[in-house]
Design the sequence.
C-alpha cells in the first residue's frame, strides 16, 4: 500500500497557485526527499499533507484515508525547534501522548524510553532554552516520534545546525527512522543530505504552479554508512545530475521573476 | 544606590528651600512635615478604615476586572462572533477617557463602594481585554502548528499555547497598568461622591487647602501601589522560570545600552586624552556623546543597491483545523 498518495493537488494562496496539479506516491516504509528551488512550495506541500492547509483541488490519501485535518498517523518535524518554551523537555516529549489521552503511567514510561533513546535523560527537567541546538533537535524528534506516527514529514529539520552536529544527527536519525519502520518525507535544500538519507529524491519544478518534475532512485541499500556513501562515485554522478536539473529549474524561475 | 542618593538630595533641597522660605510652605510643605502628617495618619484608627475601604474598592475592581477582561478576551479570540460583538464596544470604551463615567456610576450604584468598584472594574477590564485579545492573536503560529500536528485539539491549544503565551508576553505588563487603573478608579470615584476612603480624605484635604495632608495621602497611595508592583515582580520571577531573559537583569533598555557604550568608550577616551595607557579615574558621564559625534556617517549612496525582484502578494491561507478523526 502507498503510505502517501497525492492526486492532482492544487494549493493556492489567494489567486496565485503555489502547487498545481501535483501528483506523488510514496510506498510504505520508504524514505523520500523533496528538493527544489527555494520558494517552489515544498513547505506548502508538506503543510498540506499534514492537514494544516486545505487544498483547492485534488486529494491526499494517507494510508488509504483522505486527509481532512491533522492526522494521528503524521509526525511533523519543523525547521525551527518549536518546543514549548514553558515546558520542560520531558513535558514536551509527553505532549503528543497526553493529547491522545493515554494513561499517565504509560506516558511516563514512554517518555523515559524516548529520552533515553535520544540521549536526553539527564536533561528531562531542563527547559528548552537551556539546551543546545542539537539537543533541542533531538528533543523535538523524541516529541514527534513518541506518539508513534506512521509517516514522518520533515521540513528542513537540520538546516539550522552546524556541520558536525548535523552529520551525527543525520546518522542517528536515519537509524531511528529505520528502526521504527517509518515512512519519511524530507524537504531539504541540501542535495547531499537528500541523497545520503533517502531511497528516492523528488525534484520539484520552480514555482508558482510547481509540480514534481522528476524522481531519482538512490541505489544504496540500507543500512548505510553515510560517509562511505558520500565517497562513492555513483553518489557524485547522481549529485551532479540532480544539481544540473535543479539549476535549470532555478534559471527558469529567474525568467519568471524578470517577466513579472 | 545612585537613585536613592538623588532622592535624598532632592528631599534635602526641598526641605531647605521650604525652611528658608524660598517656596511657600503652604503649597510645598517640607518633607519632614509631610512625614509627620503621614505618621499621624497611620497612627489613627480612622485612617485605616478609609485605607481599607479604598483597598477593597481597588482590589475588588482589579480582581473582577482581570477575571472578566481575561475571559472576554479569551472568548473573543476563540469564538469569532464574540469578537465581532465585543471588539467595537471595547474599542469605543478604550477610546474615551472611561473616568468620565464616574458620575453616571454614582447615579446608578449610589455613593457607597459599589460605584467605585464598578469604575475601577471598567478601567481594568478594558485594558486586560485588549491585552489578552491581542496577546492571543500574536501567539507564535509555529507553536500552534506544533500542537495541531501532535494531535492537540482546541482546548489543548488554549491550555498549552494560548494561556502560557498570554501570561508570558504581556499579562504581567498589563497587570501592572491595570493595578494603576484600579487605584485610579477607586480614588477618583471617591472624589466624585463618597463618605469614606482615601479619595474622600484627599478631597477633604483639598477643600481645606491642606497641602501636607494631600501629599501624605499621595505618598500612602503610591507606596501601596509600588508594594503591589514588587509583589508582581517577585511572582513574575517565580512563574517565568523557563524564560531566559527574566532570570538575569534585562539589558535592553536605552539606559543599559548607553551604560554599555560608556563602559566601552570611556576608558579608551580617557586614555587618549590623558595620554596614559591606564584609564584615568575621572570619567565624564557625557563622553559617549563625543564618541557618537565622531562616528563617520554612512551616506545613503554608499549602500550597495540591490534590485529586488517583485513578487506577487501572497495571502496567508486560513488553517483548517477540522479536528481529529
Sequence:
Amino acid at each position: 500500500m502507498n503510505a502517501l498518495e497525492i492526486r492532482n493537488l492544487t494549493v493556492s494562496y489567494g489567486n496565485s497557485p503555489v502547487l498545481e496539479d501535483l501528483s506523488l506516491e510514496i510506498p510504505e516504509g520508504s524514505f523520500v526527499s523533496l528538493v527544489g528551488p527555494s520558494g517552489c512550495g515544498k513547505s506548502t506541500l508538506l503543510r498540506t499533507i499534514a492537514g494544516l492547509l486545505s487544498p483547492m483541488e485534488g486529494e491526499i490519501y494517507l494510508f488509504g484515508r483522505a486527509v481532512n485535518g491533522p492526522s494521528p498517523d503524521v509526525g511533523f518535524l519543523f525547521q525551527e525547534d518549536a518546543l514549548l518554551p514553558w515546558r520542560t523537555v520531558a513535558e514536551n516529549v509527553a505532549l503528543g501522548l497526553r493529547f491522545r489521552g493515554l494513561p499517565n503511567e504509560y506516558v511516563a514510561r514512554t517518555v523515559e524510553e524516548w529520552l533515553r533513546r535520544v540521549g536526553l535523560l539527564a536533561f528531562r527537567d531542563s527547559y528548552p532554552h537551556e539546551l543546545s541546538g542539537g539537543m533541542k533537535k533531538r528533543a523535538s524528534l523524541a516529541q514527534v516520534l513518541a506518539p508513534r506516527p506512521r509517516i514522518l514529514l520533515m521540513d528542513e529539520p537540520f538546516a539550522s545546525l552546524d556541520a558536525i552536529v548535523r552529520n551525527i544527527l543525520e546518522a542517528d536519525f536515519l537509524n531511528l527512522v529505520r528502526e521504527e519502520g517509518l515512512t519519511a518525507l524530507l524537504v531539504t535544500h541540501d542535495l547531499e543530505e537528500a541523497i545520503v538519507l533517502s531511497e528516492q529524491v523528488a525534484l520539484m519544478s520552480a514555482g508558482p504552479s510547481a509540480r514534481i518534475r522528476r524522481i531519482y532512485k538512490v541505489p544504496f541499500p540500507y543500512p548505510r554508512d553515510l560517509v562511505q556513501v558520500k565517497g562513492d562515485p555513483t553518489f557524485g554522478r547522481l549529485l551532479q545530475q540532480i544539481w544540473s536539473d535543479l539549476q535549470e529549474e532555478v534559471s527558469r524561475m529567474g525568467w519568471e521573476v524578470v517577466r513579472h | 544606590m545612585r537613585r536613592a542618593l538623588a532622592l535624598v538630595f532632592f528631599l534635602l533641597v526641598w526641605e531647605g528651600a521650604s525652611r528658608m522660605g524660598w517656596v511657600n510652605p503652604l503649597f510645598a510643605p517640607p518633607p519632614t512635615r509631610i512625614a509627620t502628617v503621614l505618621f499621624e495618619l497611620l497612627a489613627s484608627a480612622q485612617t485605616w478604615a478609609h485605607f481599607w475601604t479604598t483597598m477593597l474598592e481597588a482590589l475588588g475592581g482589579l480582581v473582577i476586572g482581570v477575571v472578566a477582561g481575561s475571559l472576554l478576551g479569551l472568548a473573543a479570540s476563540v469564538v469569532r462572533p464574540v469578537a465581532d460583538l465585543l471588539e467595537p464596544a471595547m474599542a469605543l470604551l478604550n477610546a474615551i477617557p472611561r473616568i468620565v463615567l464616574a458620575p453616571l456610576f454614582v447615579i446608578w450604584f449610589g455613593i457607597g463602594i459599589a460605584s467605585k468598584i464598578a469604575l475601577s472594574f471598567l478601567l481594568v477590564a478594558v485594558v486586560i481585554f485588549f491585552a489578552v485579545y491581542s496577546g492571543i492573536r500574536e501567539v507564535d503560529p509555529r507553536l500552534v502548528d506544533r500542537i495541531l500536528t501532535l494531535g492537540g485539539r482546541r482546548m489543548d491549544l488554549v491550555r498549552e499555547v494560548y494561556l502560557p503565551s498570554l501570561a508570558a508576553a504581556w499579562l504581567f505588563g498589563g497587570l501592572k497598568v491595570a493595578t494603576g487603573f484600579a487605584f485610579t478608579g477607586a480614588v477618583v470615584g471617591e472624589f466624585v461622591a463618597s463618605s469614606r476612603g482615601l479619595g474622600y480624605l484627599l478631597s477633604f484635604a483639598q477643600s481645606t487647602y491642606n497641602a501636607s495632608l494631600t501629599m501624605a495621602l499621595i505618598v500612602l497611595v503610591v507606596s501601596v501601589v509600588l508594594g503591589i508592583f514588587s509583589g508582581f515582580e517577585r511572582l513574575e520571577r517565580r512563574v517565568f522560570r523557563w524564560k531566559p531573559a527574566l532570570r538575569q537583569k534585562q539589558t535592553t533598555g536605552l539606559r543599559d545600552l548607553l551604560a554599555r557604550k560608556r563602559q566601552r568608550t570611556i576608558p579608551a577616551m580617557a586614555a587618549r586624552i590623558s595620554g596614559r595607557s591606564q584609564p584615568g579615574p575621572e570619567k565624564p558621564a557625557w563622553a559617549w556623546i563625543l564618541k557618537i559625534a565622531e562616528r563617520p556617517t554612512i551616506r545613503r549612496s554608499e549602500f550597495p543597491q540591490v534590485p529586488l525582484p517583485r513578487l506577487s502578494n501572497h495571502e496567508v491561507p486560513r488553517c483548517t483545523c477540522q479536528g481529529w478523526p
The longest helix of chain A spans residues 233-259.
